[in-house]
Amino acid sequence: MTQVDTIVALSSGNLPSGVAVVRISGDRCTDIISLMLDRAPEPRRAEYLSISDPAEKVPIDKGIVVWFPSPNSFTGEDCLEFQVHGGPAVVSKLLRSLGNITECRLAEAGEFSRRAFENGRLDLTELEGLSDLVAAQTEIQRKQAVIQSGGALREVYESWRTELTNVRAIIESGLDFSDQDDVPNDVMDACKVKITSLAATIRGHLDDSRVGEIIRDGFNVVLLGKPNAGKSSLLNALAKRDVAIVTDIAGTTRDTLHVDLDIGGYAVRITDTAGMRDTNDPIEREGVVRARKAAQEADLVIWLQDMNDLDKSGSKAPDGAVTIFSKDDNGVIDNRSSISSKSGHGIRSFIEMVECRLKELGGSMDGGLISRERHRISIEACLMDMNRSLCNFEDREEIIAESLRSASDNLGRITGRVDVEDLLDVIFSEFCIGK
Ligand SMILES: Nc1nc2c(ncn2[C@@H]2O[C@H](COP(=O)(O)OP(=O)(O)OP(=O)(O)O)[C@@H](O)[C@H]2O)c(=O)[nH]1
Ligand SMILES: [Mg+2]
């Protein structure tokens, strides 16, 4: 696909020693080379050149220039990269000079990636992997993103798509010649076996405890308990800073608030909530509603129970919650189930318990994990189509063929091989500028 505009972006990463990188993609690159550089660089070699304003013909800076002629570039178009000194005056002069060149403009978020996709350089899952890699905060997020950006998911989904297409081709060959040349029964049986086995593989891929999405979005731990149970104190102890207000007044916390931690390489979000109780205070009541909602969306709910408040209350822990006793300053309860934010007792064990939960999720990353709801929805739709085809295997070849076509279209939507025009704006808006 040819694009009129040549796009320019300043790299937004944290570059060392005052370096700024300006990336350019589009037809104007060759003009930029002749207008702004003292000589044409060799393709794909880092060259130290003087970069000048095209009108004034005076150097803006000297820097490293790398020239990637089409099609061997990230976007598939002509690309040029300038590494210059990162001072604001250098950068703004360079961007202004480039902006004065016809059809040269600043890139929008994700525009480089979108061009790479439109030119067939990378599929959507690889680009999403790259976007995740830029955003990765923890080691496991980085690992998952590297695997996905390397094409692990594309390979899986494209191999399934090929299998579906092959089976459909056999079934459609029977339709084309109708009565004269029906697909023989044994061939139909073999097709059915193939679809059944592929459906089982896809079911296995879906049955993953959402581990890929948890890695990407973070594991959600919600602290729940009665007022004054010590939830905010625990949040502060885990964050090692004063995030939440702590007082001895029951009902201090109203809004939910969270901190993001790195536990064993996983991103973990700990959310503090309003204490659970019936109240006439409308603000606190809203807080309790929000606490319940947070708990519903959690991957792990911790019910914090003040160990000094046992007789009066009895546990109100919701189903599935892990009860932890709080304010065990002297460690009198087994430290796997009690903590003290004051003395620090049990805090390490608490973190280990969360880490253990994460490890239990397991999941080998080798073949790539579903990392987005978008993928999951399409895979589920694909599986439904395959089940529909299996239900019609005895006599309805048209329906089988149509269902298999729809199944492979659903997979194609994940990689972007099938009409995704309506999704692209949403997908690429998540990306950063210069990617
Ligand atoms: N001795 C002792 N006191 C604690 C501990 N944790 C919290 N407290 C005290 O318990 C009181 C309530 O603590 P918070 O952390 O505000 O309790 P909360 O569950 O967030 O309370 P709400 O926000 O009202 O729901 C404060 O006076 C804290 O100092 C602890 O480990 N040991
Ligand atoms: Mg609180």
Notable characteristics:
Rossmann fold, binds magnesium ion, 3 domains, 435 residues, flat, Gyrase A, domain 2, binds guanosine-5'-triphosphate, 16% strand, alpha/beta, five-stranded mixed β-sheet, single chain, Four Helix Bundle (Hemerythrin (Met), subunit A)
Task: Describe the overall structure.
The chain is flat. The strands form two sheets. A six-stranded mixed beta sheet has the order 3-4-5-2-1-6. Strands 8-9-7-10-11 form a five-stranded mixed beta sheet, with helices on both faces. It has three domains: 6-107, Gyrase A, domain 2 (2-Layer Sandwich); 129-208 and 367-429, Up-down Bundle (Four Helix Bundle (Hemerythrin (Met), subunit A)); 220-361, Rossmann fold. The chain is an alpha/beta fold and 435 residues long. Helices cover 45% and strands 16% of the residues. Magnesium ion is lined by residues 231-232, 244, 252-253, 272.
Describe the protein's topology.
Elements: E1 6-10, E2 19-25, H1 29-36, E3 47-52, E4 59-68, E5 79-85, H2 88-99, E6 104-106, H3 111-118, H4 124-135, H5 139-149, H6 152-176, H7 185-206, H8 211-217, E7 219-225, H9 231-239, E8 257-263, E9 266-272, H10 282-296, E10 300-306, H11 310-313, E11 322-326, H12 347-361, H13 373-391, H14 397-415, H15 421-429
Parallel strand pairs: 1-6, 7-9, 7-10, 10-11
Antiparallel strand pairs: 1-2, 2-5, 3-4, 4-5, 8-9
Bound molecules: guanosine-5'-triphosphate and magnesium ion (MG).
Magnesium ion is lined by residues 231-232, 244, 252-253, 272.
